[in-house]
Amino acid sequence: METSESIDALIQSDIGVLAIFDPGLLEHRRLERDWWASESNRIAETNRGNAMFIDCRVGGIHRIRIFCEQVPQFMRKSGTHAVISCRTRKLFVAAGELVPSNGLGTDIMINGGLYLSANEGTINVYVLEILPYSLRIDIEATDDAPTNSFIQSPRAFCRDVIR
């Protein structure tokens, strides 16, 4: 990742799902209508390492703070973790409904979300709900394989942690 500062953003999701992904890795879904509405489709893409879909339980505006540096121990212990691929040197953080679909590719993303510059390779993503509607996301490069083994959607639960 290319910053040691945190990045703050507001992301609105009508379905209560946030997505972190390299847009190029979801292009194969571009022609599928509303594929992201199916939890099994989101789990499949997360397990393949093409994205991380986070179930926030409720729709609305979510405040996110992203850190692109070494992940602190409390995040490794308490955060929900996935390993994803990055091939285009870009990661997009957005509402789950803003992934490529319905005949629209990356052009759908002009409607919201946040682009991050990233190194090509695999990335650890940790997500933790600090307060309701407030998430911390930590991202770092890794040598791990971009595969996961979720059987239900990764969830961002509010946990009592020392920040």
Give the helix/strand layout:
Blueprint: E1 6-13, E2 17-21, H1 39-47, E3 51-55, E4 60-67, H2 73-78, E5 80-86, E6 90-95, E7 114-117, E8 121-131, E9 134-142
Parallel strand pairs: 4-9
Antiparallel strand pairs: 1-4, 2-3, 2-6, 5-8, 6-7, 8-9
Give an overview of the whole structure.
This protein is mainly β and 163 residues long. The chain has one domain (6-142): Competence, DNA-entry nuclease inhibitor, ComJ (Substrate Binding Domain Of DNAk, Chain A, domain 1), CATH 2.60.34. The protein has helices at 39-47, 73-78, and strands at 6-13, 17-21, 51-55, 60-67, 80-86, 90-95, 114-117, 121-131, 134-142. The strands form 2 sheets. It has a 5-stranded mixed beta sheet with strand order 1-4-9-8-5. A 4-stranded antiparallel beta sheet has the order 3-2-6-7. A hairpin with a 2-residue loop joins strand 8 (121-131) and strand 9. The longest helix is centred in the first third of the chain and has 9 residues, at 39-47. The relative contact order is 0.29. The mean pLDDT is 87.
